[in-house]
Amino acid sequence: MANAPTLASAQPRTAERIYTAREAAKLFSVSLATWNRYVAAKRVPRPIQLGPRRIGWLEGDLAAAQLAWRERRDKASAR
User: Which residues, in sequence order, are CB contacts of 52 under 8 Å at separation 6+?
Assistant: First the structure.
């Protein structure tokens, strides 16, 4: 374990923004009701549990989902 990183040499993690359901829905340009249907149908990334009654979505997960949606859209329009 001589090469194991130490706490002092570890790179600090950058904080990733967490979006609420309302913010995520706005980001995807859909209503909150539609967003909740997408979540139930697993069309969007899984949320993370922030507390007993609070969930959120990581910015990176939402960005990846948007990119995948755009790629599917572009692939479908190219047919």
Answer: none
What letter does residue 20 receive in the DSSP assignment? -
By three-state DSSP, how is residue 51 classified?
A: strand
Whole-structure pTM value: 0.75
Q: Give exposure, 10-48, as e/b (b: 16+ Cβ within 10 Å).
A: eeeeeeeebbebebbbebbeeeeeebeebbeeeebbebe
DSSP 9: T
Q: Is 56 exposed, middle or buried (0-12, 13-18, 19+ CB in 10 A)?
A: middle
* 3-class state of residue 75 by DSSP: helix
pLDDT value, residue 6:
53
Q: What pLDDT does 78 receive?
A: 80
Between 14 and 13, the higher pLDDT residue: 14
